[in-house]
Amino acid sequence: MVINPFCLYSRTRIRITHLYTYSYHGLLKSFQTYILDVQKRRLISESTKKILMHINERPGIRYRELLRLTGLSNGVLSFHLKKLNKSKLVKAKRLGYNTIRYYPIAVKPNESNVLDHLLNSNRRKIILFLLEHSNCRFKEIVHYIDRAQSTTLSQLQRLEYAGIISVLREGDNNNKFYQLKNRARMIKTVSKYKITDQCNFPFLLLKGNGKQLMSITLA
Predict the structure, then answer these.
(1) Model's pTM, two decimal places?
(2) Are the C-beta atoms of residues 118 and 124 closer than 8 Å to each other?
(3) Cβ-contact 130, 165 below 8 angstroms
């Protein structure tokens, strides 16, 4: 059997080329990861640290509250928040036309969906009331939260639309009973973030590498 030296050379060259291409892409990927890491570290300025601290302590905080707590100008705060969101260091969640809440990355989506409503004082009262009492009538809820019927109805409709509560109807349409749709999930979230009827904001602290959560009750 005669071996063609040219064919042997071509195969060896192809293998070397493939190995070089694979090594090049591996190095390129490592370099891109390094550049991204450097960019993130440069992003952590004093202003950014301040913003991250307040978002970690107050998950779901709104822009105006961040503006007040940080003392930064509107333009500076907006600039840093856009960078943090783009770098996936925080999550910006738009609710409606002009409401954005900011969450730490450690907060899961199903938890932030519940916290969106627990951060509202009226809806928080309704949720906590339904945790203590099952199948509540509309008048009982109005009496407990001490708000106008129109306000109470509006808040109940929001909770129903979000899938947090369900409405049971008996007889005529006016005979309605309200209850939590996923009671177990609500108990878990309220317990984890130490939500009480008196708190204005659940406090959340990140410990260690940021994956472990510690909640503190706000007096």
Answers:
(1) 0.66
(2) yes
(3) yes
In degrees, rounded to 5, the angle at the alpha carbon of residue 111 between the alpha carbons of residues 110 and 115 is: 125
CATH class name, domain 116-185: mainly alpha
Alpha helical stretches, state H, 58-182: 63-70, 74-86, 109-118, 121-132, 138-145, 149-161
Provide the residue ranges of all domains of the chain, joining segments of one domain with +. Answer: 46-105, 116-185
Would you give the distance in Å from CA 126 to the centre of its chain?
22
CATH of 46-105, one of 3.40.50.150, 2.30.110.20, 1.10.10.10, 2.30.30.30: 1.10.10.10
Give, in degrees to the nearest 5, the angle at Cα 181 between 176 and 184: 140
Q: Which two tokens stand for residue 73?
A: 């100008």
Q: Mind listing the pLDDT tens digit of every residue in the chain (219 residues)?
A: 554 544 544 555 555 454 445 455 555 566 566 555 655 555 567 888 899 999 998 899 999 999 999 999 999 999 999 999 998 899 999 887 778 899 999 899 989 999 999 999 999 999 999 999 888 999 999 999 999 999 999 999 999 999 999 998 876 656 789 999 989 989 988 888 888 776 544 444 333 333 333 333 322
